[in-house]
Write a structure and sequence with these properties.
Length: 274
């Protein structure tokens, strides 16, 4: 298994950290780009085991950190840059997924770029869907526990947020109070049409597989049902008795994946192998 690590330029002169892996004996690889979610990062939990699972089946699996996700190129697993986290927004993430696709397209890797797939988890699923609606270089899209509407996840009353300029959320794992500056909301309002998942879903022409756990307490499976109702060429896979991260947590100390995540991977690989 060959694993490569690189950095490319993202938004606001910040770096996007990337790793990608593949079996060196495999030729003409189908590329997959994985998009992490909110309070996530490319090395969260069992991400490397997940990446290995796809690479062992003949895919090139690429995962990356959004430049404003709060980790840095020098510390890939801790939220040491909360200022960057606070300045993140959906538009930055949408642009940076495009930047990663641009890099992959221009690379000289032995891939079948015309079969490019994007997998997004949670908020990353929403970003993957929005990118698919505007970027026909993406052949197939898969969401894992995706949100269906960014606007619905904002507070009903944003007046205090606007007045103070910042809203803090607790990271239950690290116990950090993580800032979201008001620009996060304002950028969404200013770019509402292109960031509107329910509206943009009708523009998605790709084949889409929507995978969701029936016991997801973070993003209910009704979000998945809504997405299926909006996206023409979509398939719904419900993972019974599974939560938002399909049995994975961070840090992940086992050397094998939980059965629920194995089911997610198997469904994804079968979808991409058709």
């Amino acid at each position: 298994m060959k694993v490569n690590h690189i950095k490319i330029n993202g938004c606001n002169d910040r770096k996007i950290s990337i790793d990608y892996r593949f079996k060196e004996t495999q030729k003409s690889l189908i590329p997959i780009i994985y998009v992490h979610g909110f309070k996530g990062f490319k090395d969260w939990g069992a991400s490397n085991l997940v990446a290995d699972s796809f690479a062992n089946q003949g895919f090139l699996f690429l995962k990356f950190n959004f430049s404003h996700n709060g980790v840095t190129s020098k510390n890939l697993v801790d939220f040491v840059d909360l200022e960057a986290f606070g300045m993140n927004n959906y538009l930055i993430e949408l642009k940076e997924l495009g930047i990663v696709i641009d890099w992959l397209e221009a690379s000289k890797l032995n891939i079948q770029f015309s079969k490019l797939a994007v997998i997004g988890h949670s908020r990353g699923g929403g970003i993957a869907l929005l990118r698919s609606a505007q970027d026909q270089r993406i052949k197939n899209t898969i969401t894992w526990a995706s949100v269906c509407d960014f606007e619905a996840r904002f507070p009903v009353d944003v007046s205090e947020w606007k007045e103070t300029g910042v809203h803090h959320i607790l990271n239950g794992r690290t116990m950090q109070m993580m800032p979201l500056y008001f620009q996060f909301y304002q950028t969404f309002i200013d770019n509402k049409e292109i960031l509107n998942i329910p509206f943009q879903s009708q523009n998605i022409k790709q084949n889409v597989m929507i995978i969701h756990g029936t016991d997801d307490q973070v993003v209910p499976f009704t979000d998945a049902e809504f997405l299926v109702s909006r996206i023409t060429k979509s398939t719904l896979v419900l993972i019974k008795n599974s939560g938002h991260t399909f049995g994975v947590k961070h840090p992940f100390k086992m050397n094998h994946l939980p059965n629920t995540m194995v089911k997610v991977i198997d469904a994804s690989i079968n979808f991409l192998s058709v």
